[in-house]
Structure formats: structure tokens, C-alpha cells
Amino acid sequence: MTEQRNLPVPDGLEGERIDAALSRMFGLSRTRAAELIAAGDVLLDGVTPAKSERVRAGAWLQVRIPPPPTAPAPVAEPVPGMRILYEDEDIVVIDKPTGVAAHPTVGWTGPTVLGGLLAAGHRVATSGAAERQGIVHRLDANTTGVMVVAKSETAYSRLKRAFKERDVEKRYHALVQGHPDPLRGTVDAPIDRHPSGNGRFAVVAGGKPSITHYTTIEAFRAASLLEIDLETGRTHQIRVHMSALRHPCVGDMLYGADPTLAARLGVRRQWLHAVSLSFDHPITGHRVTFTSDYPEDLARSLEILRAES
């Protein structure tokens, strides 16, 4: 049901961009606010504003907020190349291939982890939103590696809490352009949606706290292989933080990677792989660790770099 809101701009938002003001007033994302403005659902003193327009305290704001589009329910669909690393009555741990999203989202038409598990006859927890039942964390569609899915309701609630409380050790390897200086470091920079509203994220003042630790494993002429540990798990966190350091993941065109280098190495996606995941088993309490080898495309690119260096 469409919601209609008519009210003056609060004094505390004087001078804010209107998309940012809408976000703060109604709890919308900046992207969603920009969509409402573009659709003509926002009037400022009776006129449709530009999303970058600055608001004046007391200006009359009229906003129509249609219900957000809902993600489709997961469809059982086999996912070639998705391997089961471990399974019991409460969890299933997979090795996720590239081109596979964790769960259905608006606009995604490709395969999903949930769909692949359902197609193979695996049960998943029913907790959470219908389109992401059992999903306690996510990997980007083109990021490969270890991912755990909850099968029981108890496992779901305990794993969600463990991820929230940072009791899970998530380790990634990333091939980035150039050579980070220092070779080992920490990026502590808040992340939120990019103001452009084009699906990217960025280091943004007032964003969600985000902490990434990195260590150089191997240096090549044009790139460096890093081991990365995450304290937080923001969307695109590693990709955003590496780009902010001016060392984007090789192949990550969304965040400024060099297409020439990616083509030379045969990399058609961001070079980012979840190599291990450690957590306390939600039922037994025992610490468990699962690992994943590099997929063929990533391993081949390293062979090329080593031959050149």
C-alpha cells in the first residue's frame, strides 16, 4: 500500500541534499530516495526537485512511498560447480562458484545458493525473509569460496548472533593492483551506499563502521596477493576498502580496476576468494574450520604473474 507523507523539513536538516534528508526522515536508503525523486513521487514546495538539491528548514515536503519491490522466492535450480564441503543436521557448508548469488534479490535472474541447495534436496532453515531462509552471511555473486547455510532454526539464530558479534573468522585472498604500502595494515573506514545510487558502495562519513586487516602474501610486478581478515561484514567491504587504498581488486571494474591487466590475466570478475571460515558449531560448540582452494580462473592468473615476475 502506498504511503503518503506531508510535512515540513525539520530544522536539523537545513542544507542537506534532499536524497539524504529523505533517507534520514523516513529510514530509506539513499538509492531508494533517489528512485522516488526520479519517479516524481517527491515534491518540495510543490515542485519536483533534483536529487542533489539542498533543502531549506520549513520547506513543505510531499512524499509518496510505494511499497518496495519484493524479491522472488527461491526456485530450486541446479548450480553446476557448487560443492558441499560439509553437512550435518544443522548446517551445510558449500564452496560457492562464481556467478551465483546467495539468495534471490530484485533484479537478479541468475542461479542462487538457496536454489542450488533446494534442487539437490537439502533442507534449509525457514527463519528469516522468505527469499533468504537459512542465509546467515553472503558472498557477492562473483566472489567464490566458503559459505555456511543454516539448516535448523537453532543453527540459524546462533550463527546470525555469531556473525553479528564478530565471533566468526572470515579469511579471504585478494589479488590487488600495485603494491600496498605498508605491506601489512588495517583499513578502518565507514561504508555506505555511494551517493550516485548506482549500486556501488563507498567510504562515506557517517557510514557503518567497517574494519579490514590485510597482509601481503606475495608481490608481483603489477599486483599483490593479499590475505584479508574482516572484523565487520559490510556489502562489498573488501572491494571498497581496497579501492579506497588505490589498489582495487584485479578485474573489479565496478571499483576502478584496470581492464587491460584483467584481460592479460584472463580475469573476468573481481579476484576475490573466501579461502576459510571458522566458527563455533552452533550445536556442539566445537570450533570448526572449512577451507577452499582457488578456482581455475584465479589460479591460472597467478601462474601468469609468477611466470612474468
Automatic annotation (TrEMBL):
<dbReference type="InterPro" id="IPR006145">
    <property type="entry name" value="PsdUridine_synth_RsuA/RluA"/>
</dbReference>
<feature type="active site">
    <location>
        <position position="140"/>
    </location>
</feature>
<comment type="similarity">
    <text>Belongs to the pseudouridine synthase RluA family.</text>
</comment>
<dbReference type="GO" id="GO:0009982">
    <property type="term" value="F:pseudouridine synthase activity"/>
</dbReference>
<protein>
    <recommendedName>
        <fullName>Pseudouridine synthase</fullName>
        <ecNumber>5.4.99.-</ecNumber>
    </recommendedName>
</protein>
<dbReference type="InterPro" id="IPR020103">
    <property type="entry name" value="PsdUridine_synth_cat_dom_sf"/>
</dbReference>
<dbReference type="GO" id="GO:0003723">
    <property type="term" value="F:RNA binding"/>
</dbReference>
<feature type="domain" description="Pseudouridine synthase RsuA/RluA-like">
    <location>
        <begin position="90"/>
        <end position="244"/>
    </location>
</feature>
<dbReference type="InterPro" id="IPR050188">
    <property type="entry name" value="RluA_PseudoU_synthase"/>
</dbReference>
<keyword id="KW-0694">RNA-binding</keyword>
<dbReference type="InterPro" id="IPR006224">
    <property type="entry name" value="PsdUridine_synth_RluA-like_CS"/>
</dbReference>
<dbReference type="GO" id="GO:0000455">
    <property type="term" value="P:enzyme-directed rRNA pseudouridine synthesis"/>
</dbReference>
<dbReference type="Pfam" id="PF00849">
    <property type="entry name" value="PseudoU_synth_2"/>
</dbReference>
<dbReference type="InterPro" id="IPR036986">
    <property type="entry name" value="S4_RNA-bd_sf"/>
</dbReference>
<dbReference type="GO" id="GO:0140098">
    <property type="term" value="F:catalytic activity, acting on RNA"/>
</dbReference>
<keyword id="KW-0413">Isomerase</keyword>
<comment type="function">
    <text>Responsible for synthesis of pseudouridine from uracil.</text>
</comment>
<dbReference type="InterPro" id="IPR006225">
    <property type="entry name" value="PsdUridine_synth_RluC/D"/>
</dbReference>
